[in-house]
Each structure stands twice: as C-alpha cells, then as structure tokens.
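Late entry, evening session. Most of the bench is empty. Finally got around to the prediction I had been postponing all week. Sequence below, unchanged from the version circulated by S.P.
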Amino acid sequence: MKLAKHTGRPSRDIKREVVSRTDALVLMVGAAVIAAGSSVVSVISMAGLFSGPATLTLPVEPTRKASGLELGAEASFSAVEATIPVLPGAEAGQLAWAGALTQVGVLAVLAMLFLLAFRLRSQTLFTRGSVWIIGACGAALALAGTAGQVLDQLARTRLADAVGLNPGREPGSVIFEGNISLLPIVAGIALILIAGVFQFGGRLQKDTEGLV
C-alpha cells in the first residue's frame, strides 16, 4: 500500500497591518500640512480683526420677534450678523486671543496625530512618552477650546451692546450671552482616558515580554 505524497505548498500566514509604515508617513505629512495651513488662516483672520471691517454673529435678546411670517407662525431670533467697520481695540484683542486659543486646541489634536504616527512608524507606541503625548493633548484641547469659546462670547456680548442691538438693556449689565460647545471638553476627557488605556497597554506589554 502506497501513501500519496502531498505536493501542495504549505499555507503562509499573511500578516496585514491596519496602519503600515507608509500609512503612518502619510498621516504625519497630512497632519503637518493641515497644521501649517490652519495656522496661516488663523493668523490672517486675527490680523483682519484689527485692520478692517469685520462681519460677526452677535447675540441679541431672545425676546426679539420676527415679523411678516405666514401661516400664523411666530418666531424670535437670538443672534444677528453685523458688519462693523472698525472693531474697538479691547474687543478685537479678545477675539484674537479667542481665535489663538481655538487654534491651540486644533494644533494639539494634529500634534498628537503626528507624534503617534511617528511612534507607530518606529514601532514604539505603548511607551510612557505616548501616554504623556495623548494626555497633554487632551488637556490642551479641553482647556484651550473651552477658554477660547468663553473669550469669544464675552467679546461678542460687549460688541452687541456697543452697536445698540439691545436698546432696552443697559450696556455692561449682561457679561456673557451665548452658547458653549461641550465638544472640546468631551474630546479632551476621551483623550485622557485613551492615555490611561495606553498606560495599561504599556504595563501589559512589559509584563508579557519574554513569555512568548
């Protein structure tokens, strides 16, 4: 009795990387380009606040009613778009600082993407440095993003009173009027939690080294 000889080629395990070294390089270049472009746009916008007319959305009393509506509808508006030829220096500076802080939040996210892509390319992802990078970027995003919104709305509230959009209100009687997005805070907290996951992953990787 003869046994048939197996002539087939042995199967090979094909390892597919979710993010290859080339992909990581593309992410690094993309993050750097977006950071540079957004910074240029941000600087131009901040300079425009001091040099020429500015069109801004300013808050008004929500009791202002819209007229001329059909179907018996009633509506009120809480913001208007106004073009101011020359902004007062204090408000222009405050809006500029708000834009700068918002840009800091954007740069924090882009810096995190760049540095993580760099570490992924060098295969040193679960390290103490990665934990600090993600945690610091999350804190910067939460603090700078929120502070930028607060400064922005403070300046817009003062401008609304200065141009007379709220005639029945004494100027300066309302310090803050507007809405604050919680997205920077939520995203920042999420990044800090991810930093904790990276810290746990680093410990797990260190404990399992040499076991396999």
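Two things to note before I forget:
Residues 10-14 have pLDDT under 50 and may be disordered.
The helical segments are 21-51, 89-121, 128-162, 183-208.
Will write this up properly tomorrow.
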